[in-house]
Amino acid sequence: MRSDLIALVLGGLGFVIFGVAMSVAPQAVMASIGWQIPDGVPTTEVRAFYGGLELALGVLLLAAARNPAYRRAGLILGGVSYGLVGLTRAAGMLIDGTGGGFLWAALATELGLTALFAYAWTRTR
């Protein structure tokens, strides 16, 4: 499989899986990392933003994988999205002095996918 398709499918599935989890059970997902979300408006907002935005990004990346005309744009979207999430996470970890298994695993995933998107983008020129 070509690197552009691998990046788009892996990145798309990552966003979709997390988006579904945050849409269906945001309190349980966030409790697993120690964040308690109150019932009502806060849960709805987390569900909408984390769930909805992640689903939108995932669907767009998967759609780009299916249509060659949109693959380069999808690679840019995926690289910028994962890259900025990863860089912001890293900055937050430095500013807040935090770490731990979840944060390091998420950061490695985000930066690894960013590198894959960048590599795939350079191969499709």
Mean pLDDT figure: 95
Radius of gyration: 15 Å
| Class computed from helices, strands and strand pairing | mainly alpha
Low-confidence stretches: none
Number of separate strands: 0
Secondary structure: helix percent? over 70%
Instruction: Please outline the major beta sheet.
Output: none
Strand-and-helix sequence, N→C?
HHHHH
How many helical elements? Answer: 5
Count of spatially separate domains: 1
Distance between the termini: 17 Å
Q: What characteristic shape results from the CA principal axes?
A: globular
Q: What this model shows, in words?
A:
The chain is mostly helical and 125 residues long. It has one domain. The chain is built from five helices and no strands. Helix 1 runs antiparallel to helix 3, helix 3 packs antiparallel against helix 4 and helix 4 runs antiparallel to helix 5.
